């Protein structure tokens, strides 16, 4: 799975701001 999304730009909705797969797919 390759995404050119900067993880720092995605707000993690997981525990302690962890980024979940759902966060990336819904970005």
Automatic annotation (TrEMBL):
Superkingdom of the organism of origin: Eukaryota
Source organism per UniProt: Jaculus jaculus (Lesser Egyptian jerboa)
Example of a GO cellular component annotation carried by this entry: mitochondrial matrix
Recorded family membership: Belongs to the 2-oxoacid dehydrogenase family.
Family matches, as InterPro entries: E3-bd_dom_sf (IPR036625), PSBD (IPR004167)
SUPFAM superfamilies listed in its UniProt record: Peripheral subunit-binding domain of 2-oxo acid dehydrogenase complex
Protein known as: Peripheral subunit-binding (PSBD) domain-containing protein
Compartment(s): Mitochondrion matrix
Protein's gene: Dbt
Domain Peripheral subunit-binding (PSBD) residues, every copy: 1-27
Record-level Gene Ontology MF annotations: acyltransferase activity
Main localization category: mitochondrion
